[in-house]
Amino acid sequence: MDRSDKERLVSDIENQLDDFFGEDENVSRDHDADGAPAPNPLEQLKSVVLSIDWEITDECLVELEQSVDTLMDTYKDDRYTHTMLRMLNALGKYIKKRKAQAHPDAIKRVMSVFKNLEQIVSTAGMSEKRKKSIVAAEIRRFKELKERVDSKRRGRAAAAGDTTAGQRATELANEIGKAVSAATASLKKELKALRQRIKAIEKKLNI
């Protein structure tokens, strides 16, 4: 792969990640006091990912974000590894924000991305072609998940729209009912007054 192809690949990947689930990706950087990455960062990340697979908690998701941020510093010059980490970062932010409303496949994607990330990092001498194949496959699944999430979101919006329309129809019917009741009451009052006037006239005329 020549340099221009690599740059296009990374650009496409980053554009997709920046647009993931419509969320902004504001990545912070966490270091130790001396500025060095945390020791054994991949092992730490693996522990966090396994914890999330067992139980999703805010604490685990914060640890995931911190571990990923540290690794992103460590592998900032490794495009493929960095891309996988960005996917993990985006998935973690999405799950943290949506909680129970998150798409159930999001956790599966976290597991899959980490598994392939570990393969890329731990396999010595892996070819560029193999790395590209692994990353491309994860990006494809990543996009498929995004499409399912967007579809679910559109469904919720449509349902909310139907509910709103129903509420407006009910409110309009209530307003019409009130107007009819008021008009009926007014008409009855006028008829009563008219009958009283007629009786008064009949009394005067001794009818």
Give the topology, please.
Layout: H1 3-18, H2 41-54, H3 58-74, H4 79-98, H5 105-122, H6 128-204
Describe the model:
The longest helix is centred in the last third of the chain and has 77 residues, at 128-204. The protein has one domain (3-159). It has helices at residues 3-18, 41-54, 58-74, 79-98, 105-122, 128-204. With 207 residues, it is mainly α.
* Rounded mean pLDDT score: 77
Largest β-sheet summary: none
Whole-number tally of structural domains: 1
The count of helical stretches stands at 6
Order of helices and strands: HHHHHH
Give the strand tally.
Answer: 0
Strand content: under 5%
- Cα(first) to Cα(last) distance is 113 Å
Rg value: 33 Å
Question: Judging from the principal axes of the Cα atoms, what is the shape?
Answer: rod-shaped
Q: Uncertain segments of ≥5 residues (pLDDT<50)?
A: 22-33
**Helix fraction bin:** over 70%
Determine the structural class based on helices, strands and strand pairing. mainly alpha
